[in-house]
Amino acid sequence: MALDEPTTNLDEPNRKSLANGLARIIAHRSKQSNFQLIIITHDEDFIAAIRQELIVTAKTSMPDFFWRVSRERHKNGMYYSKLSQVDIEELPL
Q1: DSSP reduced 3-state for 79
Q2: Sign of the alpha-carbon torsion through 9, 42, 81, 77
């Protein structure tokens, strides 16, 4: 399953409901070897909300990391995308 900017135009109650629903799906499907979920978002607070829901509902904190894409200026003056693996524990609860 892939979600591209799922929180766009959502108010706070719907954003929280989506985080809760995704956390339940992740917890339920976590034991399946063929389950993949990709969330493309600029909203790291949303990812933190999913993490919080996982801790509360599933008593777990998965996934272990997420990927952050940032823009970096190279010494030649060009800009490039930079992918950084970020430990999920770095997000606030």
Answers
A1: strand
A2: positive
